[in-house]
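Retro notes (design track)

What went well: tokenization of the new backbones is finally stable.
What didn't: we kept losing track of which sequence belonged to which structure.
Fix going forward: every design gets posted as structure first, then sequence, in one message. First example under the new rule, 80 residues:
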């Protein structure tokens, strides 16, 4: 799953994180892209730590399902 296109429901349902955390990810990404339209909001799993409520344990849970721009390999069963 691409972190750059997924919505709240996709994050919350497929990755099994709370809707509040999913909303925080999507909102952060929206604000970031407004200021930096030519750059991805997140280019590695650790970049998600910029979001309040996202720490190492959440990142560990999410990482197998996400694909980041710096890595073109498939990172999990849900990655495109």
């Amino acid at each position: 799953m691409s972190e750059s296109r997924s919505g709240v429901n996709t994050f919350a349902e497929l990755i099994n994180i709370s809707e509040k955390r999913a909303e925080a990810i999507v909102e952060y990404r929206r604000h970031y892209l407004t200021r930096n339209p030519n750059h991805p909001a997140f280019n590695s799993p650790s970049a998600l730590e910029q979001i309040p409520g996202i720490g190492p344990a959440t990142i560990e849970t999410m990482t197998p399902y996400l694909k980041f721009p710096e890595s073109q390999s498939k990172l999990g069963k849900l990655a495109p």
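Added context from the reviewer: The helical segments are 8-14, 19-35, 56-62.
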